[in-house]
Amino acid sequence: MHELAIAQGIIGGACEHAAGRRIFRVTVAVGTLCAVVPDALRFCFELAAEGTLAEGAELIIEQVPARGHCHRCERDFTLHEPIPLCDCGSADVDISAGTDLRIRSMEVSDPCALPADAAATARR
Questions:
Q1: Which of 3, 86, 87, 92 minimizes the number of CB atoms within 10 Å of its CB?
Q2: Percent of the chain having pLDDT more than 90?
Q3: Distance (Å, whole) CA 124 – CA 114
Q4: Is 69 annotated as a binding residue?
Q5: Is residue 112 annotated as involved in ligand binding?
Q6: pTM (2 decimals)?
């Protein structure tokens, strides 16, 4: 299951950029050719987040469709199968989208102000 390694990478990158702030939500774009199972990634994200700034954070997965360009007919098209074949029958295809996985955004909190010392405040 490569989703665990992916989830650990997402958590590591998010925590690094959070600069000590608590992470509430992480949005990732996942290409359909990455062979990532969304439910498995969510499960692994929860496991990998335990004990980190992202513990309890929500993971939002945006699926990015695979796109290709056929050199024979010069057509751009959406890939519906993992094997890049154009409708014209050509396999001379460049994949232009759907293979990447990236963190698109994350929602973090700023640390709250420290509460006033009740004993010191009462003496004033």
A1: 87
A2: 76
A3: 18
A4: no
A5: no
A6: 0.77
